[in-house]
Structure formats: structure tokens, C-alpha cells
Write a structure and sequence with these properties.
There is one protein chain. The chain is α+β, with helices and mostly antiparallel strands. Helix 1 runs antiparallel to helix 2, helix 1 packs parallel to helix 3 and helix 2 packs antiparallel against helix 3. The chain starts with 26 loop residues before the first strand and ends with a helix. Strand 2 and strand 3 form a beta hairpin. It has two domains: 60 residues, no CATH class; 127 residues, Methane Monooxygenase Hydroxylase, Chain G, domain 1 (Up-down Bundle).
Length: 189
């Protein structure tokens, strides 16, 4: 074994690169690749070795993002919002639809992010889904509030309040998160 005192790696940038035929299903290879060398100490060997790292940025294709994540999550959210518009006399179906939409969103989110490595921060998709959870929980809470209100007139007022406030709150929250995400992207460029 040759340590970095005997062998130092040097990236050959002229003859290195990524074959244009490389395909990573569901992802786009993009940006400039980078090759760098660092000295890395391995305690088990008691020696420092030259280490070459080759990195290539990847990102999900926009089509995959829309059709595999955004569209299904919006359909689940729409189902929860439909429950808000249902008459208060249909409390059981409203409750079933709200609960199913919330649980379906959680399962969908877990499945959608299972292909990603564990990250120590929230991605845009995580933030998007957290706002969906809050909105769907509000749909569920509206049914509980309605069940506790025996007066039909009061139920109608509460129903209208939730019917307006929950989607409006969702739109505002998603707009704020999208603006923050856009600002981060613009700052990194």
C-alpha cells in the first residue's frame, strides 16, 4: 500500500468526462462534473492516502416531478378539499374522505421519498407535503368541529369558514414556500 507520501493521484481533466450515453432512469445528468484530490487519513492503516473524488450533479427530470409527485399529491389534496364542500348531513362520508386523504398523503410521501438518500434537511417536496398535511388535518378537524355543533345554522357557518380558510391558507403557505425555494435557487446560481 502506497500512502500519499509515495503516490499522489492527479485528475486528468483533459481525458476525463461522462459518456453522453449514460442514463439514470428518472434523473437528468446536468451541470459540470468535478474531479478533485484530497489526502485522507485512515486510522486503521495509520497512513494518509491520496483520494480522488469524481462528482456529477443530477436532478429529477421536470416531467417526473410533475407526473410522479406533484399530480398525485394534488389529487389527494383535492379529495380532502372535496370533503369540505360536502353537506354537513353527510358527516360520516366527509370524515372518511378527509381521513383517507390524509393517510393516503402520508403513505404517498413515504413512498415518493424512499428512492432518495436520507437527508438532514427538508427538500421542497417535504415542505410541499407538510403544508398538504396541515391542510388535510384542517379538513379532518372541520368534521370534528361540525360533529360537536348540533345547530344546523352554526354548522353552515363553520362549514363555510373552513371551506374558504383551508384552501386559502394552503395557497398562501405554498406560495411562501415556493418563493423561498426560488430565492434559494437564485442565490445558488
Amino acid at each position: 500500500m502506497r500512502g500519499s507520501d509515495q503516490l499522489v493521484l492527479v485528475p486528468d481533466r483533459e481525458r476525463s468526462g461522462v459518456d453522453p450515453r449514460v442514463v439514470l432512469s428518472g434523473w437528468e445528468l446536468g451541470g459540470r462534473w468535478d474531479a478533485r484530490v484530497v489526502d485522507h487519513y485512515y486510522p486503521v492503516f495509520g497512513q494518509t492516502f491520496s483520494e480522488l473524488t469524481f462528482s456529477l450533479p443530477i436532478r429529477r427530470s421536470p416531467d417526473a416531478g410533475v407526473f410522479k409527485f406533484l399530480l398525485p399529491s394534488l389529487i389527494l389534496l383535492a379529495c380532502g378539499f372535496v370533503a369540505l364542500g360536502m353537506p354537513t348531513s353527510l358527516l360520516q362520508p366527509r370524515l372518511t374522505l378527509s381521513t383517507t386523504s390524509l393517510l393516503g398523503s402520508v403513505v404517498f410521501h413515504l413512498n415518493a421519498t424512499s428512492s432518495l438518500p436520507p437527508l438532514g434537511y427538508l427538500t421542497y417536496a417535504d415542505s410541499f407535503m407538510l403544508i398538504n398535511y396541515v391542510a388535510l388535518f384542517a379538513c379532518l378537524a372541520s368534521n370534528i368541529v361540525l360533529a360537536l355543533r348540533p345547530d344546523a345554522a352554526e354548522q353552515g357557518r363553520v362549514r363555510r369558514l373552513f371551506m374558504l380558510a383551508v384552501p386559502a391558507g394552503w395557497l398562501v403557505a405554498q406560495g411562501v414556500i415556493a418563493a423561498l425555494e426560488l430565492e434559494l435557487v437564485m442565490r445558488s446560481v
